[in-house]
Design goal:
Layout: E1 6-11, H1 22-35, E2 45-50, E3 62-65, E4 69-71, H2 76-88, E5 97-100
Parallel strand pairs: 1-2
Antiparallel strand pairs: 1-3, 3-4, 4-5
Helix pairs in contact: 1-2
């Protein structure tokens, strides 16, 4: 199996978004990844859905690994920016970031060892 460059999870449950706005975003993500050649290219992105990411407000919530960048209040417009700017071009959409995981001990930005 070929590796993925990133893994994007979207919360499709009702806790952070009582209207369950994450489910249509998850479907839209598939179309956007295909549109931007991120499904089968060398920079391919794996998408996943989960009923809960543990943040029970400000949803829909999305997280991108390996960076550990969390986005809140994701709309279709913001999702498109995340796909083009972060997933394709490698630059997080800073104004929408709600949390960042710290890199593992002994590793700098981007997960590279010292």
């Amino acid at each position: 199996m070929l590796p993925y460059s990133r893994h994007a999870f979207i919360c499709t449950g009702q806790y952070c978004s009582p209207e369950r706005r994450g489910a249509p975003l998850y479907r839209l993500l598939a179309r956007l990844l295909e549109q931007h050649d991120l499904l089968f290219s060398a920079n391919r992105v794996k998408r996943g859905e989960t009923p809960c990411l543990g943040i029970c407000e400000g949803g829909p919530v999305m997280v991108v690994y390996p960076e550990g960048v969390w986005y809140g209040g994701v709309t279709p417009e913001l999702l498109e920016r995340i796909v083009t700017q972060h997933l394709r071009d490698g630059r997080p959409v800073e104004e929408a970031v709600i949390h960042r995981l710290a890199p593992p001990h002994g590793q700098g930005e981007g997960g590279q060892g010292r």
